[in-house]
């Protein structure tokens, strides 16, 4: 009988010890859970304040960009061709941007332009000319020379040498003003005065553009720009890169919303137009295959071609024939 009591007492003690151990573990787990909760709450509070601060900074920049987009005509009821414009047989208006190093080449362009299009309007945007140079240009072309209001734009748009982020902004300004514009390069030399087939094509597709590069968009565009547009460089292995400064554009609804809006948004965002790691020089075109990234980024041209590819689903109804003009070196 005493043996049975001893066994019962030992079993009772083991049960109590197990119970105490269980309670101790439960209490310790609760304490750890509470302490971790406090730590995470503190961390989340810090992160939240940081995120709020960052979001406020982003919102300020976004608000400035939004106002600029409104100024550029991106409203609920945009000014579009042909409804918002008077019938004008003198379209398109020819537009040219001019930098200091291009002044000597301007004279050949002006002579050629006046020969083929004596009745057409030409507007030149001064990118970095001095007043004396502007006066000489005015005397030479007898055309309007406009200044660029750089203060309206983010600081990276002022990078006139490489980014050319100002180009789609100026294109949009002139599209909004005239309805149909022909953006030109100073090295272009026209070979025909008959624009009617090109006007027909432009009114149908919204844009005609020409290529001067022998390489595809994928070879001239940093990988991160493709990511920005939610696409892959492999989609552009065989898209020949076109030139935005050789383009006939119509301010149609499709061009307004599918081309100009995403293009300008990209150019207003430095991370899009000039992704980290991108550079204008250092091109290596010796590699094969030719569609692999050559190591040099083409900024606004790259964005332009990505958007055209997405807009037309990699078809090319926007490409113009090479019979209208040639280029000189």
TrEMBL record:
The chain crosses the membrane at residues 18-36. It holds the Pfam family DUF1647. InterPro entries: DUF1647 (IPR012444). Keywords: Membrane, Transmembrane, Transmembrane helix. This is Uncharacterized protein. The lineage of its organism: Eukaryota, Metazoa, Spiralia, Lophotrochozoa, Annelida.
């Amino acid at each position: 009988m005493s043996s049975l009591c001893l066994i019962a007492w030992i079993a009772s003690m083991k049960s109590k010890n197990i119970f105490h151990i269980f309670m101790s573990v439960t209490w310790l787990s609760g304490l750890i859970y509470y302490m971790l909760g406090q730590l995470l709450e503190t961390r989340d509070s810090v992160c939240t304040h940081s995120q709020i601060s960052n979001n406020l900074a982003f919102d300020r920049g976004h608000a400035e960009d939004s106002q600029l987009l409104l100024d550029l005509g991106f409203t609920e009821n945009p000014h579009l061709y042909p409804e918002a414009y008077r019938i004008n047989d003198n379209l398109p208006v020819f537009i040219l941007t001019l930098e200091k190093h291009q002044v000597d080449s301007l004279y050949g362009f002006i002579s050629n332009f006046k020969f083929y299009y004596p009745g057409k309007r030409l507007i030149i945007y001064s990118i970095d000319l001095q007043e004396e140079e502007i006066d000489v240009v005015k005397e030479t072309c007898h055309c309007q020379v406009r200044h660029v209001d750089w203060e309206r734009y983010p600081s990276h748009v002022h990078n006139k040498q490489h980014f050319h982020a100002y180009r789609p902004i100026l294109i949009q300004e002139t599209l909004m003003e005239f309805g149909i514009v022909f953006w030109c390069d100073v090295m272009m030399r026209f070979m025909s005065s008959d624009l009617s087939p090109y006007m027909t094509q432009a009114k149908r597709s919204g844009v005609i553009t020409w290529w001067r590069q022998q390489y595809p968009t994928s070879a001239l565009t940093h990988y991160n720009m493709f990511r920005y547009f939610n696409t892959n460089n492999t989609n552009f292995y065989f898209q020949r890169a076109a030139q935005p400064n050789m383009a006939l554009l119509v301010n149609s609804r499709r061009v307004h919303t599918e081309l100009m809006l995403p293009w300008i948004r990209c150019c207003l965002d430095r991370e899009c137009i000039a992704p980290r790691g991108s550079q204008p020089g250092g091109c290596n075109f010796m590699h094969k295959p030719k569609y692999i990234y050559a190591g040099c980024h083409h900024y606004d041209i790259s964005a332009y071609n990505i958007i055209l590819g997405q807009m037309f689903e990699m078809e090319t109804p926007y490409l113009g024939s090479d019979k209208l003009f040639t280029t000189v070196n």
